[in-house]
Design brief:
alpha+beta, L-fuculose-1-phosphate Aldolase, two-stranded antiparallel ribbon, binds ligand L4RZE5RM, binds zinc ion, Aldolase_II/adducin_N, lyase, methylthioribulose 1-phosphate dehydratase activity, EC 4.2.1.109
Length: 200
């Protein structure tokens, strides 16, 4: 697992990339990398910054509840608690939270979960192309990360590495930032396709 400096460099580079894609507009979105498991520790992007302009120092080390470790100059993401919960429950090495449009539009149409079927791009989302049915869970938005974490855990399927938060954005995870990015890119395609087909 990376140290805080290496993680900071990777988080800044990934944030710049997502910003260029239009998936971290304004100050939206946040990313994390797992630094250690026993006890759980993560590096997470700092709160309220332009994610396209981060340096390797604009990250905060947090514990398994999302609280910053003592002595740090920046506040962790407001959503740090959900990153920690996902890292704990799913065993993720990296979690990305993006404000892309497609998941939010799809969640508006299918608030009980978004069903994906028989699509080659499912392979890029960590599933098989011909899996009968892949359901991406949707939970209502909340400002309380314990509420969001409980809703995530209640619907958690180890085979599905994503969670859509209605009227907010999406969380995608994997063993590292590259896997998480590839899954996020493929999921965005899958959601755009599925919504476009449903609209006829
Ligand atoms: C316009 S961004 C609103 C807050 C949010 O949803 C987000 O993803 C960014 O929060 P952070 O505290 O990580 O900057
Ligand atoms: Zn957000």
């Amino acid at each position: 697992m990376p140290d805080l400096v290496t993680a900071g460099q990777a988080l800044a580079a990934e944030s710049a990339r997502y910003t260029a894609m239009g998936w971290m507009r304004g100050t939206s979105g946040n990313l994390s990398v797992t630094l250690g498991r026993d006890p759980l520790r993560l590096a997470v992007t700092a709160s309220g910054l332009d994610k396209g302009e981060l340096t390797a120092h604009d990250v905060v080390e947090i514990d398994g509840t999302g609280e910053a470790l003592p002595g740090q100059r920046l506040r962790p993401s407001a959503e740090a608690g959900l990153h920690a919960r996902i890292a704990s429950v799913a065993g993720a090495g990296a979690v990305v939270h993006l404000h892309m449009l497609a998941p939010v539009v799809a969640a508006e149409r299918w608030p009980g979960g978004i069903e994906l079927r028989d699509l080659e791009m499912l392979k890029g989302f960590g599933r098989r192309a011909h899996d009968d049915l892949v359901t991406v869970p949707v939970v209502p938005n909340s400002q309380d990360m314990t509420v969001l974490g409980d809703a995530f855990e209640a619907g958690y399927d180890p085979a599905t590495p994503a969670l859509v938060v209605a009227r907010h954005g999406v969380y995608v995870w994997g063993d590292d930032l590259l896997v998480a990015r590839h899954r996020a890119e493929c999921l965005e395609w899958l959601l755009r396709f599925t919504t476009a087909i449903a609209e006829g």
